[in-house]
Amino acid sequence: MVSADSYRDRRTSMKELAEASLAGKCLDGPLYCVSRTWLQQWIRRKSMESPCEADTGPTALIMCPHGELMPEQATGAKRVLVPENLWLFFYDTASKVKPDDPLGRSTFPSDSAPCAQCCVELSELACEKDSQREFKVNQCQSHERLALGKSIALSPLQ
């Protein structure tokens, strides 16, 4: 019972810090990255009696398959910086709920560099999408010219 009261009281004060972090108002001292989506869900959670499964994985959505910090441009990898005492609360709580899951609480200080391999893959994907977009624009322009009865230059397929 005492442990539940202690958790509830501590979570209430940490919730205020979390809300301030989301608003960008907690930028003093050492800072750590957590998933923006995870933090928003953690704040909205109704049950605050004791730690549960929802308290695990504050960095799972921002960790790449290589175990490093995912580039923020990656889908679903938006993050927010939280102060050290809030990060320690998340880390300790996740450790109690899932002591055998170190990946769900990987630590990413604010100066952590994103995964170099994922950055290269994202750049390649962006270039491919740009090429596809350019091809589609050219096709649309050719179709419009044909629809207007104008001629278009034919070239062999490459």
Q: Provide the structure class.
A: mainly alpha
Q: Assign a percent range to the helix content.
A: 40-55%
The parts where pLDDT drops under 50 for at least 5 residues are none
Shape: elongated
Helix and strand topology:
Layout: H1 2-22, E1 31-35, H2 36-44, E2 79-83, H3 84-97, H4 116-147
Helix pairs in contact: 1-2
Could you describe the 3D structure shown?
There is one protein chain. With 158 residues, the chain is mainly alpha-helical. It is 48% helix and 6% strand. It has 4 helices and 2 strands, in the order αβαβαα. The chain has helices at 2-22, 36-44, 84-97, 116-147; strands spanning 31-35, 79-83. A two-stranded antiparallel sheet has the order 1-2. The protein is elongated. It starts with a helix and ends in an 11-residue tail after the last helix.
